[in-house]
Amino acid sequence: MPRFPAFSLQLPEWVDALLPDPDQVYPTLEDRMRLVIELSRRNVLMGTGGPFGAAIFALDSGKLLAPGVNLVVPSHCSVAHAETVALMIAQPLVGTFDLAAPGLPPYQLVASTEPCAMCFGAVPWSGVRSLVCGARDEDARAIGFDEGPKMSNWAAALEKRGIQVVRDILREDAAAVLRHYAQVGPIYNPGRS
Amino acid sequence: MPRFPAFSLQLPEWVDALLPDPDQVYPTLEDRMRLVIELSRRNVLMGTGGPFGAAIFALDSGKLLAPGVNLVVPSHCSVAHAETVALMIAQPLVGTFDLAAPGLPPYQLVASTEPCAMCFGAVPWSGVRSLVCGARDEDARAIGFDEGPKMSNWAAALEKRGIQVVRDILREDAAAVLRHYAQVGPIYNPGRS
Fold it and tell me: ipTM of the assembly?
C-alpha cells in the first residue's frame, strides 16, 4: 500500500436507482430543483450524508450531467459538500476541469441550499454559467449549520464574473428537508463533534 | 459501469519517493514550508499539475500527516487545489472529516501560496488550527492566476474562528516557483482554456 492512499468518492448506490433514464431532461428550474431536493431528502432518509443535494445540468436542454449529495461524514472528508461532489463527478465525465471549455454546452449548478463559503469559492473555478439555489443560507443556519465566512454580497460577486444567480426556487420545500434533518442530526461542524 | 463513476484522486508517484521516511519531522515553520515549496516546484518540473503545494502537519511535533499538490488539470477537477487535495488525502488517513476531533493532535495546514476563495472557505470546515502561507495572493495574481472573489480581510475572518494565520514564510522562494511556472504554463482559469 502506498503511504498516501488515493482518495475515492462514490455516490451512494440509491442515486443510480433514482435516475434510471440517462436521456431524461429537466426543462424548468423547478424540475431541476425538485430532483435536487429529492437527492437531499433521500440522503438523509438513507443515512448516507447531510441534508444537501446538488446537480449539474446542461443549461439549455436541462439534461442531467451529474448529481451530488453531501458525503462529508461517510467519505471522511470536509470538502465533500453536495456542490463539490457534483463537480468532482461531472468534470471527469466531460474530461476537463472546465465546464466552460470549447465544445461543451453551457452548464448550470443547481443546489438545494445556497452555497457555503467554500462552495461559493468553488463556483467560479468550475466553469458553470449559472447557479440556482433553493433554501437560503439562513435556513441552514437556522438548524445550526455554519455557512462559513462568506461575503454578504456573494451573489453579486458571482454575477460580476458572468455567473447568473437565481435564488428561492422551491425554497420552502428545500428548507423543509433541513428542518426534518434537524430532528435526526448530526450537525457536523468541525471541532464540535 | 455505473452511470456515475467514482471520483478518484491519486498523488503523483514522485511524492512517495520524495518522502521515504514516515517518521521524519519538520520542526520549524521554515522546515515545513521548504517541503511544501519543493512539492510545488516538483509538480511543475514533473508536469503533474499547477505550481502549488500544501501539506498537513501535526502542529506541535511537526510530523507530516499528508501532502497535497495542485491536480486540477490531470484529475479533470477544478476542486483539486493543493490545499483541498491535502485535506482529501489527510482526513481519510485519520478516519474523520474533522482534524479537530477528540483524540487527535492539533493540525496545521501549510500552503505554498495564500488560499484562493475556495480554499479559504475550506479551511474552517477542515478542523486545522493553523494556516501557514508562503507566497502572497498578489504573487499568484502577478502571473495571471485568479484567486477568486475573496474578502480582503480573509486572514482576520479565520483568526476570528480560532484559526491562527501566519504569512510570508519563505515568501520569495515560494513566489520564485510561481514566476518560473509563468514561463512554462498553462494558466488554467476556467472559460479561458
Answer: 0.95
